[in-house]
Amino acid sequence: MSTPEIESTKFALEAAKEYVDLILKPSAATIGEILNDALMPWKTKNKVRVLVKCRKICAEKGFKPEQIEPDIFVPLIEEAGNTEDETLSDMFANLLAGHLNPDSKDNIHPSYAKTLGQFSSIDAIVLKDFYRLQGTKDNFNEGISSTILKIELYPTLKILQI
User: Fold this and answer.
1) Which of 19, 63, 84, 109 has a Cα at 20 to 30 A from 28?
2) What is the share, in percent, of the chain residues with pLDDT greater than 90?
3) Helix (H, G, I), strand (E, B) or coil at 105
4) Once rounded to an integer, what is the mean pLDDT over residues 12-20?
5) Under a CB-based contact definition with an 8 Å cutoff, are residues 133 and 162 in contact?
């Protein structure tokens, strides 16, 4: 970044901060800062757990992870930081590993992380059991008539390795 771009960015950030200070009630801003400080170690622990699991998955599957774009990694790891549920953490780790795997990365939509971030622990268990009950891809396709489910849901479940 050139010096004029840096100065422009600094100016824009300062203007944005001033506007937020103007429109946000002081008590809400203070509460937000306190909550953010309190939750940071918990979220960091959850993110690290997913990264460690992902590294193990990559090693077990025997592929060298490829680099991914921040616009894929950041939302995924942010969503992963919001849960300590083991099933969901496993799903996030498998999703990240899928993005890092040169053989599967093109089959994974970036929105999967946001979708997975909306799951509760019970949703994850139900989805996991649904996948297990389906057996093979052929059995899955015979039991589901919707083309969308045939095309979209099975690959998604497979990527999550549930």
Assistant:
1) 84
2) 40
3) helix
4) 72
5) no
